[in-house]
Amino acid sequence: MTAKTAAQQNRNTIFVEDALVTRIQKYPGDQFVLRLNAPKCAARATAGSFAHIQCDETIPMRRPLSIMRADASEGWIEVLFKIVGEGLRALGNKSVGDAVSVVGPIGHGFLPTPERPRTLLIGGGVGIPPMVFLAETLNDDEREWQPLVIMGSEIPFPFEAAKSKIRTPWLAESINTTMPLLESWGFPTRLASLQGYEGCFDGYVTDLAREWLNTLSEAELQEVEVFSCGPTPMLKAVAALANEFGIPCQVSLEEFMACAVGGCAGCAVAVRTAEGTAMKRVCVDGPVFDAKAVFPE
């Protein structure tokens, strides 16, 4: 695909709009969930896409934030972020009623395979939002999916965790903390951390995923597909785990971005293609890629 063809593919799919902050939720660890009234973005957002948000008029560089939820009928999106610099600090200081400029939705999202209904969703830290969006997408789909969601964090989770009422027979009963939103959709969800949080699995998300995968038969493994977003070392470990069990895996990459619409190519990464290794832009060619293409064996 030529650069011109790639640009045409994204034409009329990315919008610029002034979005109003309608809800702010703050969580420990300087984490925030903002709901923004952005109807154009909400109408086209998919699980894995993101928005490029202006944090403040005095800060020229926007910040790429994964979309955690979107409601096309009500015209809102939600983003989760952790303060790591002055830009996101400014965004965290916004109040309900403030306006922020939003460019989005950007990027190609996750594409679950109906022939593999046992979807394993693995999110770590700020990689949690796309997993929530994907879970909601599966929940809204009329087809029969059987998701398992695993989330990891080394700071308090950006939601009020609760004890799950959904049994996971493959896991010790003491590991029972879940995300209430996903619980309300009937999705078994378990949390992992090395911080000793009550009810959480003591280990990495990949360790927890392995516990489940080891209980599956060869026939059941043929129905599994993995989706993941999080820090690069975590994604590499998830890709290696999927390869070990012979399971297809899609990963959403995180990269520093300037324009986020494919112009600067500052977020390009090496990706294996049928024609050989090529440099692909995470913003518009991704952020979701086949794990084997970005993390060769």
Structure description:
This protein is of the alpha/beta class and 297 residues long. The protein has 3 domains: 11-106, Translation factors (Elongation Factor Tu (Ef-tu), domain 3); 118-249, Rossmann fold; 253-297, Dihydroorotate dehydrogenase B (pyrk subunit), domain 3 (Ribbon). The chain is 23% helix and 32% strand. It has 9 helices and 17 strands. The chain has helices spanning 3-9, 39-44, 86-92, 128-140, 180-184, 205-213, 218-221, 232-245, 291-294; strands at residues 15-27, 31-37, 50-53, 63-71, 76-82, 99-106, 118-124, 148-152, 162-163, 177-178, 189-193, 201-202, 224-229, 249-252, 268-273, 276-281, 288-290. The longest helix has 14 residues, at 232-245. It is globular. The model is unreliable at 1-8 (pLDDT under 50).
Features:
globular; Dihydroorotate dehydrogenase B (pyrk subunit), domain 3; seven-stranded mixed β-sheet; Rossmann fold; Elongation Factor Tu (Ef-tu), domain 3; 3 domains; disordered N terminus; 9 helices; alpha/beta; 297 residues; six-stranded antiparallel beta barrel
